[in-house]
Amino acid sequence: MQVSSLIEALPADLTLTLVDVGSAGGTHSRWDDFRPLLSNILFDPREAAATGSFGRGATRVYPVALGEAAGEAELFLTEMVNMSSFLEPDPEQFGRYRKKSGDSAVTASEMVKIERLDDLAKRDGFKPDVLKVDTQGSELLVLKGARSALQSVILAEIEVSFFARYKGQPLFADIEAFMNAQGFELIDLLKLKRYRADNSFGIRNAGLREGERSGRLAYADAIFFRREALVLEIGKSDGGQSVLRAVVALVAYGKADLAARLLDVGRDMIGQARAVAIGEAIRSLPSPRRKRLISRLLGKVG
Fold first, then answer.
1. Which GO BP terms apply (predicted)?
2. How far is CA 72 from CA 111, 114, 142, 195, 207, in A?
């Protein structure tokens, strides 16, 4: 994505604070073109020590896990590392699906320090604009420890589950209800993942019609956006800065149409000339279909 003209149309000091809980090696590539604007705040308990700094173009890493209450919690380590969780895997559930029983087997456990996002944000003086949470089942606990921090959040990406793979795991409906109560609306589900049922016939993906897929929907990344009226209300208090941050976040998540609408309804706050410049910059961005075509053509030339 070429966003240089979009960045040029934004105020020179605009900063977007991205908080990534369960960062697992860094932020998503969707943010690559926006890195000059970003203040990255990452949480990864596997890190040995806190590193980095705050501010535009900087990255701060916290070597802690987040939850509803400060203290310690038992982390269940699994055969497949990225299935480790603060919730115990449910062998009955995982045992129904291909390869999941072995992957989710607990190999060890350890006590891990837990902090609340609200406490750290208040102590260190940062306000999240975008929040991503992927903690393998404990997402709702993280959110409950971030009620104050959520007041500044415009867009949130939360991993949600559609059945309880871990014991006592909150499900999609629980997280959606919580986010709705905080002033957010679901706008998309990304990266829908399915588990294929284990069976003696070795059947994996047989289907009668194109586009149908076997397997049970297991989890996805739910994208929540703050209600439009609330974004505008926040924008009135900060000279339209929150509206501009929301536009950037929506473009990063491929929601150019919603970003353009926000330019329309927030035009009085951000100014006519700036709204037009940003709108034209968004209009000039290549569509995903065009980008795929260009990529294929360049591949053939190479």
1. methylation
2. 6, 5, 14, 31, 47
Q: Which residues pair with 59 in a beta bridge?
A: 40
C-alpha 111/C-alpha 72 separation (Å) is 6
User: Cα(38)–Cα(13) distance, rounded to whole angstroms?
Assistant: 11
4-73+112-198+213-301 CATH: 3.40.50
Only one residue has tokens 């896990």, namely: 65
Q: How confident is the model at residue 273 (pLDDT cuts 50, 70, 90)?
A: very high
Q: Domain locations in the chain?
A: 4-73+112-198+213-301
Q: What is the pLDDT of residue 53?
A: 84
Least Cα distance to 195 among 269, 112, 277, 96 occurs for: 96
Q: Where are the beta strands (DSSP E) in the chain?
A: 16-21, 38-43, 51-52, 59-62, 65-66, 71-78, 106-115, 130-133, 155-161, 184-195, 216-226
Q: What is the pLDDT of residues 180-225, one digit of tens each?
A: 999 999 999 999 999 999 999 988 876 666 667 789 999 999 999 9
Nearest to 19 by CA among 39, 41, 46: 41
Helices first, then strands: H and E counts in the chain? 12, 11
